[in-house]
Inverse folding.
């Protein structure tokens, strides 16, 4: 598998070089903020829970949370270990001497990930949540998708992921969302019935 990824390294390096050419204090502050918001998928979990608590968007919230669960299982526990791609800063300096002659890992003051690189977890969770929302509601789905794109770019900007990791994360994130939509089609009516039953019981107790 490493031979496959090696074939993309020159492309990934050229992307890093371009990103380094546009780096500036203001853009860095924005990108660091965005990438930090994606840590552990907290912002997307919070979004799913908020939507779940509203009657109008309850199904959307259910689908978002389902997509994130699928993402954690498949992305973080399966795919990353299968591909086992080292992070840009974890490449072997001797084997990839040509890379380190050009690439210098900058300090952005962010949490340095210890997991494997492919596919990007931040990107896949962002797209899993965004496409799940977009499926039901374009009004909130479009800005959420734009944020997902920025999340992916932020991971390249802070140089903890290759561009190909982000592209991979985007693709699998979309797949996770579509699987979640299918799951919601069958599971959400059951969830709604359980919720209504609980509400009825609580109302009865109060009465």
């Amino acid at each position: 598998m490493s031979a496959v990824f090696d074939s993309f390294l020159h492309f990934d390096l050229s992307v890093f070089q371009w990103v380094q050419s546009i780096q500036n204090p203001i853009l860095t502050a924005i990108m660091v903020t965005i990438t930090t918001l994606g840590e552990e998928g907290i912002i997307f979990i919070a979004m799913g829970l908020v939507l779940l608590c509203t009657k109008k968007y309850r199904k959307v919230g259910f689908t978002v949370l389902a997509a994130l669960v699928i993402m954690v299982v498949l992305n973080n526990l399966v795919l990353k270990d299968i591909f086992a791609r080292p992070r840009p800063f974890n490449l072997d300096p001797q084997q990839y001497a040509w890379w380190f002659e050009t690439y210098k890992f900058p300090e952005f003051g962010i949490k340095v990930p210890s997991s494997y690189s492919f596919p990007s977890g931040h990107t896949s969770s962002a797209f899993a949540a965004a496409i799940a929302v977009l499926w039901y509601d374009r009004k909130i789905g479009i800005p959420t998708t734009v944020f997902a794109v920025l999340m992916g770019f932020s991971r390249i900007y802070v140089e903890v992921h290759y561009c190909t990791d982000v592209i991979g994360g985007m693709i699998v994130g979309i797949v996770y969302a579509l699987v979640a939509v299918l799951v919601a089609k069958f599971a959400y009516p059951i969830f709604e019935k359980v919720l209504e039953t609980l509400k009825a019981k609580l109302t009865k107790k109060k009465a």
Notes: The mean pLDDT is 89. The chain has nine helices and no strands.
